[in-house]
Specification:
This protein is about 35% helix and about 20% strand. The protein has about 475 residues and is an alpha/beta fold. The strands form 4 sheets. Strands 7, 8, 9, 10, 11, 14, 15, 16 and 18 form a 9-stranded mixed β-sheet that branches. A 6-stranded mixed β-sheet has the order 1-6-5-2-4-3, with helices on one face. Strands 12-13-17 form a 3-stranded mixed β-sheet, covered by helices on one side. β19 and β20 form a beta hairpin. The structure holds ligand BES, manganese (II) ion and zinc ion.
């Protein structure tokens, strides 16, 4: 979809040739003398458009206007939740008409995050997955024009929102593809495609290179499958070589059956989404390609399948990680932490300013935080605060979780340096405590996106989270380095 931003002029709005003109208004609406605001004032006076977010009034071929449909959309007070509701309601109304071009005009200047939410909600609502349909029906809307009173004041925000959408859609696309259409090799190919953009480079390591690096934990997960593993290394070089990069590590389990500790059959299909962390890293690089900020970013993706076979790891097996620490694999379904720990060790070589790993790591995190906020674990207060702030500004929310050492008690074992599982209580935290052992040499944060990366049920599909959060985090770093 193509997004554009235009300045606002009530008189010319009437002559806007568009399939649908959506006019968003808040309770603060004051009418002017032009025809459109007189009409709105009459509608409000009549009581036919009550001041609640998502309430609509739809007019077909309004007199003296160039649009096919005029839709008055109430946004209540105009906060982000209300904007989301208003844009969803308007899109749901227009969806059956299959319009190609729509115009969204805001009578009152929205806040930066409200504009962000409007762009994101429209993109999200109109996205369709077609990759594995025999008769694909692609998304209808090709162009969305946003009209604001002061378009210049929000131009940078708008561009960032549009770039984030490109990243979110790439993440959704790969998240949604079934495991036989999204193998580690496919993900590596996508990374190679991204390296065609300016300032992006990529290296792909295969089984031999990974063995040479001594990534025994990552290899152990991959050994149950005939599908070869890939270790994807992406670089975005927007600043001098001397500028320490942020490293993003994405869990790339392209299918998680649980391995020998096999999962129950019900909903096992959803474990194709177990590479959503990896997809979010690819998505962030897609957004960086558009935004070209003056920072350095490294993306690391350990990608493989977790399957049972005669060669698969067994409960009780002990493996040696790249860090030298030995790990007793008590549950082969706790595989995410095994692939991540070697990627964390690998990230030491970049002497990073921060490392953030992103993973659909634990069912326990879904129980703790549901689908609203991702779990945030961090050893660094500045990093943690920056990620919370980025979550708020992008409305891609996260919530800080504890890392007390007492939570690591259950990871003790008689047979290795550490076990890969503790008991069920605090499962999201004990998983983070495991990872922390491999993240001692840099400021580190872990985002558990098990509850937020995809939706189940009728709306089953990847959400593209937390690409929005990560893009805002990185762009805020750029603003800071610009000032220094
Ligand atoms: N990929 C899963 C986590 C998951 C499960 C995400 C359900 C979303 C929904 C992960 O690899 C896993 O299986 N974790 C186990 C850990 C346990 C064995 C300690 C879990 O959460 O059950
Ligand atoms: Mn698992
Ligand atoms: Zn998993």
């Amino acid at each position: 979809m193509n997004f554009a931003l235009k300045p606002f002029d009530l008189r010319s709005l009437g002559s806007e040739k568009t399939d649908a003109l959506l006019v968003f208004l808040t309770s603060a609406f004051k009418h002017d003398k032009d025809a459109l605001s007189m009409l709105i004032a009459r509608v409000i006076k009549s009581g036919d458009l009550t001041p609640k977010a998502g309430n609509l009034l739809d007019i077909f071929r309004p007199d003296g206007m160039a649009c096919t449909r005029l839709v008055l959309v109430h946004m209540g007070e105009g906060n982000t939740t209300e904007v989301r509701r208003a844009v969803s309601a308007a899109f749901a109304l227009l969806k059956p008409a299959k319009y190609k071009a729509i115009t969204l005009s805001f009578l009152k200047q929205p806040s930066a995050s409200a504009l962000r939410v409007a762009v994101g909600t429209l993109a999200d609502a109109s996205y369709v997955f077609t990759a594995t349909k025999s008769k694909p029906e692609p998304r209808c809307i090709q162009k969305a024009i946003f009209v604001l009173p002061d378009e210049r004041a929000l131009r940078a925000e708008f561009d960032r929102a549009v770039a984030a959408v490109a990243g979110i859609e790439l993440a959704k696309e790969w998240g949604n593809r079934p495991a036989n259409h999204a193998t580690p090799t496919h993900l590596a190919h996508t990374a190679r495609e991204l390296a065609k953009f300016p300032k992006i480079k990529c290296d792909i390591l295969g089984p031999k290179e990974v063995a040479k690096l001594g990534m025994g934990a990552f290899q152990a997960v991959a050994q149950g499958s005939d599908e070869p593993l890939r270790f994807i290394v992406l670089h975005y070089n927007g600043a001098a070589k001397s500028s320490a990069p942020v490293v993003l590590v994405g869990k790339g389990i392209t299918f998680d059956s649980g391995g020998i500790s096999i999962k129950p059959a019900a909903e096992m299909d959803e474990m194709k989404f177990d590479m959503c962390g990896a997809a979010s890293v690819l998505g962030v690089f897609r957004a960086l390609a558009d935004l070209q900020p003056d920072i350095n970013v490294v993306g690391l993706i350990p990608a493989c399948e977790n399957l049972p076979s005669s060669r698969a790891i067994k409960p009780g097996d002990v493996v040696t990680s790249m860090s030298g620490q030995t790990i007793e694999i008590l549950n082969t379904d706790a595989e995410g932490r095994l692939v991540l720990c070697d990627a964390l060790t690998y990230s030491e070589r970049f002497q990073p300013r921060a490392v953030v790993d992103i993973a659909t790591l634990t069912g326990a995190c879904v129980i703790a935080l549901g689908a609203v906020r991702s779990g945030l674990f961090s050893t660094d207060e500045t990093l943690s605060a920056a990620l919370v702030k980025a979550g708020d500004s992008s409305q891609d929310l996260c919530w800080p979780m504890p890392l007390d050492d007492d939570y690591a008690e259950g990871l003790k074992t008689n047979f290795a340096d550490v076990a890969n599982v503790a008991g069920r209580p605090g499962g999201a935290i004990t998983a983070a405590k495991f990872l922390q052992r491999f993240a001692g040499k840099f400021p580190w944060a872990h985002l558990d996106i098990a509850g937020t990366a995809w939706k189940s049920g009728v709306a089953k599909g990847a959400t593209g989270r937390p690409v929005g959060l990560l893009v805002d985090y990185l762009m805020a770093l750029e603003a800071k380095s610009g000032k220094a």
